[in-house]
Amino acid sequence: MNQQKILTPEPKVKVATHPLTRHAVGIVGGTFNPVHLGHLVMADQVMCQLKLERILFIPDAEPPHVDHKETIAAKDRVAMLELAIANHPGFELDLLEIARGGKSYTYDTIVELKKRHPMNDYYLILGADMINYLKKWHRINDLAKLVTFVGVKRPGYPAQSQYPVIWVDAPELAISSTRIRGLVKNHCSIRYLVPAAVEKYIAEKGLYHD
Ligand code: ATP
Ligand code: MG
Prior knowledge:
Helix 3 packs antiparallel against helix 9 and helix 5 runs parallel beside helix 7. The protein is 37% helix and 16% strand. The chain has helices spanning 3-6, 37-49, 74-85, 96-100, 106-116, 128-133, 140-146, 177-185, 196-205, and strands at residues 23-30, 54-59, 91-93, 120-127, 148-152, 165-168. By secondary structure, the chain is an alpha/beta fold. It has a single domain (23-172), classed as HUPs (Rossmann fold), CATH 3.40.50. Strands 3-2-1-4-5-6 form a 6-stranded parallel β-sheet.
């Protein structure tokens, strides 16, 4: 008997037995010097309103922009982020830019993330100040093809862009890391502007005093 005849032929197209699920993941990048409630409210509101699965906080090793600002050690910025996101099940820290060191372009970071996690769709969450700045970003047109830009209004900056942006209506908080650093330097309270654990960390380490 010809065995060939009883063999089941290989299907021409392989059909997946389980549907492949894509994951909607938000990204908040920044220097987080230090992290404050503006960052956290923005991330939480976008996650909820756009029904994202989770949010990655990606601290930079060095700020990549022309307005170079003094920053404290990455170790302290990361420790404060860890404290700030500890109780939120959807918030995660990704240290790929710190691990790479030096200046990272968002384009390179996204290419790397997409290589590692091809089933993720990334939503790049930016305050209005950063949205205004997009046109100066490295490989912005390529980046625009890889992510969805999500804008969050920030007092003092127009909510407009030449790029496609989903604007999320979150409470506008006039809190910035610059302001936090200034308050600490002047021995003023930062209570209610940063998570209590971050306030404690700053006090214990004596950050931002000189
Ligand atoms: P700095 O004053 O040192 O520039 P920052 O408060 O702007 O600090 P960054 O770490 O520079 O914080 O910002 C990271 C991201 O968070 C950016 O996209 C920025 O636009 C956004 N962001 C920060 N604070 C707010 C805020 N209060 N409302 C909306 N977006 C914010
Ligand atoms: Mg900033």
